[in-house]
Amino acid sequence: MSKSLVIRADASRAMGSGHVMRCLALAQGARDAGYHVVFLMGEGEGIEERVKREGFEIAFITKKKDAQETIDTAKTHHAIWVVVDGYQFDSAYQKKIKDAGFKLLFIDDYGHCDHYDADIVLNQNVYASEDLYASREPYTKLLLGTQYVLLRAEFSTPPLREGKGSGQNTLITLGGFSQKKLSSKIQQSLQKDHLEVRVASGDADMPSLMQWADIAVSAGGTTTYELAYMGFPAVLLVRADNQKAVAEGMVKAGCAVNLGN
């Protein structure tokens, strides 16, 4: 019987696709290590087909009894590990997964839980600090900082950019399926200056877009780290409270310019 891993994460037009997209990187690595990976979603709007194209199984839950349904799915698939990524998952959720006998990897961004019962807490952000997780179990291992950034397989090779630094080609990527109105407004403004502009969707082929573009206008989310890894110049916009520290950290690291809110 092959080893199994259950990933609990959601995507929607309101929250974007960042949680699922970074979990795809983890899923790719787990598959390479011999795990059968199951994505468990309460919402998968706009990202379901991408997950299926990657060859991963998807199951859906009602979210009425989220933790119990996650446990039941993990038991059905004889999972060893459960991975949880999302701001709706709290300390009680972690404890239920652990009490059911599973190993738990909790992907976190800003220490939003009162206490951490997970076996591993992964915070890939530039500002990640042990102080965020002062209340945790003695066995909880912390993986903190950009050395643990979850990058999908398509980012394994830096692109040869077609633009050759001309500055004429601009990529707009403001996060998943939301921010369409703002993306359109920025696109129209840049096109008035005779610049070539493309807008990335939540299911976009980002390496190909990076190959074409010279610079990116990006929200301060998961995509920020993909751009930095590829050595790609970026102008950042803060579109959510949790993106502010990311944008500020990337400016300090010399990776981007921050325009703020």
Overview features:
single chain; 261 residues; alpha/beta; Rossmann fold; 2 domains; five-stranded parallel sheet; 8 helices; 22% strand
Task: Describe, in plain words, how this protein is organized in 3D.
The protein has 261 residues and is of the alpha/beta class. The chain has two domains: 3-150, 3-Layer(aba) Sandwich (Rossmann fold); 156-258, Rossmann fold. Helices cover 30% and strands 22% of the residues. The protein is built from eight helices and twelve strands. Strands 3-2-1-4-5-6-7 form a seven-stranded parallel sheet, with helices on both faces. Helix 3 packs parallel to helix 4 (91-99). The chain is globular, with a radius of gyration of 19 Å. The N and C termini lie far apart (50 Å). The model has no long low-confidence stretch (mean pLDDT 90).
Brief overview:
This protein is α/β, with parallel strands linked by helices and 261 residues long. It has helices at residues 18-32, 48-53, 66-76, 91-99, 180-192, 206-212, 222-229, 244-252; strands at residues 3-9, 35-41, 57-60, 79-85, 103-107, 120-123, 141-144, 169-173, 196-199, 215-219, 234-237, 257-258. Helix 3 packs parallel to helix 4.
SSE blueprint:
Elements lengths: L2 E7 L8 H15 L2 E7 L6 H6 L3 E4 L5 H11 L2 E7 L5 H9 L3 E5 L12 E4 L17 E4 L24 E5 L6 H13 L3 E4 L6 H7 L2 E5 L2 H8 L4 E4 L6 H9 L4 E2 L3
Helix pairs in contact: 3-4
In the CATH scheme, the class of the largest domain would be Alpha Beta
Provide mean pLDDT, rounded.
90
H/I helix tally:
8
Number of domains: 2
Which percent bin holds the helix content?
25-40%
Low-confidence parts lasting 5 or more residues at pLDDT below 50? Answer: none
Categorize the overall geometry: globular
Oligomer: single chain
Q: Could you state the order of secondary-structure elements as H and E?
A: EHEHEHEHEEEEHEHEHEHE
Number of strands: 12
Termini Cα gap: 50 Å
Strand ordering within the main sheet: 3-2-1-4-5-6-7
**Largest pleated sheet:** 7 strands, parallel
% residues in beta strands: 15-25%
Q: What's the architecture of the largest domain in CATH terms?
A: 3-Layer(aba) Sandwich
Instruction: Specify Rg, calculated over alpha carbons.
Output: 19 Å
CATH topology of the largest domain: Rossmann fold
Class computed from helices, strands and strand pairing: alpha/beta
